[in-house]
Specification:
The structure is a homodimer of 403-residue chains.
Chain A (H helix, E strand, L loop, with lengths): L19 H8 L3 E5 L2 E4 L1 H18 L4 E2 L5 E2 L1 H6 L10 E5 L2 H6 L4 E3 L4 H11 L8 E10 L14 E11 L2 H22 L5 E6 L9 E7 L5 E6 L4 E4 L11 E15 L1 H5 L4 E2 L5 E2 L2 E7 L1 H11 L1 E2 L2 E2 L10 E6 L4 H9 L4 E4 L6 H11 L3 E6 L6 E5 L5 E4 L1 H7 L1
Parallel strand pairs in A: 3-7, 19-20, 19-21
Antiparallel strand pairs in A: 1-2, 4-6, 5-6, 7-8, 8-16, 9-10, 10-13, 11-12, 11-13, 13-16, 14-15, 17-18, 21-22, 22-23
Chain lengths: 403, 403
């Protein structure tokens, strides 16, 4: 893509925000804040978000079918699960003015999560023991009444999330699937580039369950959580569930990037969703839910991968693989060559901007490879890896082969 | 995909609804109604929706950059454009219970459209005459306080929509772009299969503008609108703007599938968004907005392409190209061959279902090609085009080549 086509430009003078991800993503033109906890994804940001979500999608497709549930639902569903009056992030949609109220005065729950809705409909499609187990997932915008929206993409009132739900005829079958989801999450975090620094922790089940849940926590200096890693026993704990004697454990700051909840039979039971076994007897259905905030993960990646100059995207989720800068010569031919080879390239084709500013913008945006063409480089190109101090002159063909 | 993996099954006994699209899409397992005007997209439905949206996206990418705006916005934005109290489809998000209210008592507008929000932020990124013209678009879930949600996907309270916005330094430049959008829309409707039956009509500007707007209307027996086509002068009218003497025009029922609004300088003006010309003088900015409801279009396609047995998807948006049915022999090998050739195939691998039910389900779901393998077909396959009475035995290779 040509830089001149991007709607949003870098804005190095944008004010510092309460977190590194908010500050850098805003300055680099990936996101823009509309109000506390609510951001727009600008073209560069949407590219990264799509890449993260496609990595998630590919892995989830091995576990279940993708669907798209509604954001709105009737109050009755939340009343049935007993959560209508208790969930304090719950919002509802109501007419915004008298003209709207006079036309149609309805109220709808804005689902902050979908355990309730999926349990209410699953019975219609999966009534029998032959229909179990099954899993479905969606990737969707979610809304929550966060009292303190903060830290950019880490805690928002509107955010993107993948949510997976599974239903089983026995607890044993549920537990096996739960472990499979853990492996899928590991693959996802490996692929986006945080695998080695991401651990599975025991966590409280919160509103959902009295059992432990599990979180995926990415170790990160600016992380909002403190975790304790018991390396001897290959187990880690969130602070609120850690054992008393933590002296033998490694303490680390970390950011939550995913969670797994064993929900038992609570949600299906609420809707009378049970299955009929081979002998004709009614049996309870075991359920799990598995969240992964894709926009939050984007924020964590920036918290983890940046330097003084800007963002350093892992290649798998970078908005573009190559950032092409042409200095007083045309880069059109190189741009065409890269596109022809299906290499994603951001081409800084601006003519009224200094070399220094183009270099600074490339570092701020953080694509893995910077290529410069100029009178000096002749028939070759100057190649620099983001974060490296060294650049080298190469033939275009050799660079393309190296990717 | 294996039929057994689909979350949702066909349900021929599902009750008749108020429209053909709602009835057929529900019976065939594409959508499921949560409440009036609110549907879930089940796996088959999401596949069709994604295909429609990708056709739209490809065309829109030639006009502008894709971004993803927020659903929530502060009231101030709508106050600034004078629409906070007047737009009667406007909803707001508020805490759903006392627990939520006690934690954080905020109210946010749920944007039913984004002229207001995009105008409020464009200035930040595109302040100068050198930044004009530009266009941005998004594909997003929208929410509207419809008094009479009806007709399945045709008029919902929650629906999917592509919205494009353009900004220009002169009315002449705007008008040129407006015509380019018309051409892009024609390409989209051609590609999804309704091109020959879709006409551009003059329509009222509604709340947006005192000028005419334009609509794309697809001629369809069950259409909610009446249009008048003046073939001699190559122009068409929506009923409310048609000239008195309609006797020489062709009257037709049609469904709106897209709209184009010339907005003048109203929205940019409201936010003081003007540009500075070469001479340093402030000048107004001309704006257009261009909508295309992707979920609505899916509904219109079903209204138009169906028969007594079910849906007949145009190939470009069909959930799968091929519906493979195996009768008392294994279809696994054929399934693998089709997948290897990247042909999208739905494989009915159910063993406890009669041949008759499998055929009926294939007709209901409506993929373009049905393939049967059985003891009778031997090394060949039986191929039938959806809607054709004839089937023929073919070699697998010949079928693949024919696609």
């Amino acid at each position: 893509m040509r830089y001149s086509r991007l709607f949003a430009r870098t804005n190095k003078s944008a004010k510092e925000q309460d977190s590194i991800n908010a500050t850098l993503l805003t300055k680099a033109g990936f996101i823009d804040q509309i109000m506390a906890g609510v951001y727009i994804f600008l073209p560069l940001g949407l590219r990264v978000l799509n890449k993260i979500e496609n990595i998630i999608r590919k892995e989830m497709d091995t576990l279940g079918a993708e669907l798209l549930m509604s954001t709105l639902s009737p109050k009755e569903i939340w009343k049935t699960t007993g959560r209508l009056d208790t969930v304090d992030v719950l919002m509802k949609a109501v007419p915004a003015n008298d003209a709207a109220k006079n036309r149609h005065n309805g109220e709808y729950i804005i689902n902050p999560t979908h355990e309730d809705l999926i349990s209410s409909i699953a019975q219609r499609f999966r009534p029998s023991y032959k229909d179990l187990p099954f899993a479905v997932y969606q990737i969707q915008t979610k809304f929550r009444n966060e009292p303190r929206a903060k830290s950019g993409l880490l805690r928002g009132r509107e955010f993107r999330m993948k949510d997976l739900y599974s239903f089983h005829a026995s607890e044993a079958d549920f537990k096996q699937f739960y472990e499979t989801v853990k492996e899928s999450y590991k693959t996802i975090f490996d692929r986006v580039g945080v695998g080695p620094d991401t651990v599975v922790t025991l966590a409280s089940g919160g509103d959902f369950t009295k059992e432990y849940s599990h979180e995926f926590q990415t170790i990160c200096e600016t992380g909002e959580d403190v975790i304790y890693i018991d390396e001897k026993n290959s187990i880690a704990y969130n602070k609120e569930v850690a054992p008393e004697n933590k002296s033998e454990m490694k303490e680390a700051r970390a950011s939550e990037v995913g969670n797994l909840f064993p929900l038992g039979t609570r949600f299906p039971d609420a809707f009378g969703y049970q299955f009929t076994d081979e002998k004709g007897a009614r049996q309870p259905i075991y359920m799990g839910s598995y969240g992964l905030g894709s926009s939050r993960l984007m924020g964590v990646l920036v918290e983890k991968f940046h330097d003084e100059q800007g963002i350093m995207w892992p290649q798998a989720v970078a908005p573009f693989t190559v950032h092409l800068i042409a200095l007083r010569v045309s880069g059109d031919e190189i741009y065409a060559q890269l596109k022809e080879k299906n290499i994603e390239v951001l081409y800084d084709d601006r003519e009224d901007v200094s070399a220094g500013q183009k270099f600074a913008d490339a570092d701020l945006i953080g694509c893995p490879w910077r290529i410069v063409v100029s009178a000096k480089t002749g028939a070759q190109i100057e190649v620099k890896r983001r974060g490296s101090a060294e650049s080298q002159l190469m033939d275009m063909d050799d660079f393309i082969k190296s990717l």
